[in-house]
Every structure is written in C-alpha cells, then in structure tokens.
Amino acid sequence: MEAAASFFENRSTSWSYDSLKNFKKLSPYVQQHLRKVYMTVGGALLVSAVGVYVHMLLGIGGLLTGLGFIGASVWLASIPSSAAEEGKRLKLLGAAAFCQGASLGTLIEAVLNFDPSIVVTALLGSFVVFACFSGAALLARRREFLFLGGLLTSAVSTMMMLQFSSMLFGGASLMYMIEIYGGLLLFVGYVLFDTQIIIEKADRGDRDYVKHSLDLFVDFAGIFVRILLILTRNARGRERKEERRRARSTRY
Asked: CA–CA separation, 33 vs 204, rounded Å?
C-alpha cells in the first residue's frame, strides 16, 4: 500500500504553479512526441493481450506476475532516458505490459467463461473513455487539468484509508463499490492529468516517451479492469433477478 501511494504521489508532484499559467499551443515537437507515446501505448496493449493469452494457455498469472510488473516498472523508471538505453527500457516496458496482462488473465478468463461479450464491451468502452478524456486534455487549454494532481493523490490516500478501515471494522461490500466506481473516476482523472503532464514535460525537452507510455498504459489498464467489473456485476445482477422471476413463475 505504501509503495502504491508513493507511486501516485511521484506522478502528481512534477509541476509548478507557473505551469498553470502557461497555455501555449502544442508545438510540432510536442505533437511528434505525443504520437510516439500513443503508438508505444498501443504496442504495450498488444503485448498485454499476449500476456492474457499465455495465461489462459499456461496459467502463469498470479502473485509472481504482479511482482514482475512492479519490478519491471521500477527498473524502467530507475534507468535514465538515453538513446543507448532505449532498447533496454522498451524491453522493460514490454515485460511490464506482459506481466500486467498475465495478472489480469484470471479475471478476464472468468468473465469470458461467464459472458465473452462483456470483455469485448469493456475493451471498447475503455478505448472510448481513454480516447475521449485524453483528447479532452489535448484540446483543452494547456495545463488546465494540472490542479487535479493534488486531488487525485488525496483520493488515493482516502481510498487506502477506507480499505484499511474495512479490513478492521467490516463493510467489504461497500468498499468494493467504492473501489470500482471511485477507482474508475480516479483513473479517468489520471488520464487527464497524465496527458497534460506529458505535454508539459515534452515542452520542456523531456523525451522519455517510454516512461510516459507506461503512465498512460497503467491508466488504461485501471479503467479497463473497473469497467469490466462493473459490467460483470450488472450482468450477474440481471441474471439473479431473472432466476428469481422464473422461480416465482414456477410456483404459481
């Protein structure tokens, strides 16, 4: 939990008040950098899909792949961005994406066995949400959403405190609802925030498109998981209602 809090806090402190007042249009360099970032995110998503497939074949997803994702991400962040290290950092991004996909494989496999259409709907919905809010950050005035950094960090801390409280005092059902719906709003906020942070860094000469791609990949994965859980929960609720309706009709 502390590692997760540190991860989110590090993402929300790389800006200053002066950047809030800078609303310049995107330069050609920044546009080129963003294209590179989004292409890399797309590649990471494909590798993640391979991770899901390999898990379904071999059952490799679990604690080790979760730790593998954290290890690869931390290792990537610790290596300075340079042309000499670009290949190594891309491999680490691919390893992180593969481990994330394998880790999600158990959930995705269970949903596929229940209703394959839910996975397709969740994936399409995630692309739509990600594209809309990332596009909103690109089209908005520069640095307009940087104020979200503090709010998002506070929201993460609050959710962790609530989770700890639920472990001590109960209320797991309520906490689950907060995690999936509140978590969805949280990651949507991070898409807005991270997109504008990437613009700010690129405008200042930061060419670390690999790290920027990892940030957006994490945001997309967080959105996908929560949309998948919400759709599955709603489908199971409808199924239970239908079963109760059939049971009542057979009685009379």
From this structure: 12
Nearest-angstrom CA–CA distance, 15 and 116? 42
| Helix, strand or coil, per DSSP, at residue 43 | helix
- Helix residue ranges per DSSP H, the chain: 2-11, 17-20, 28-58, 63-78, 86-114, 116-139, 148-169, 172-177, 183-203, 209-251
What's the predicted TM-score (pTM) here?
0.83
Q: From CA 1, how far away is CA 161, in angstroms rounded?
A: 10
Q: Are 221 and 69 in contact (CB under 8 A)?
A: no
- C-alpha dihedral sign at 46, 48, 54, 56: negative
Task: Show the CA angle centred on residue 12, arms to residues 62 and 4, nearest 5°.
Answer: 25
Q: What is the pLDDT of residues 39-88, one digit of tens each?
A: 999 999 999 999 999 999 999 999 999 999 999 999 999 999 998 999 99
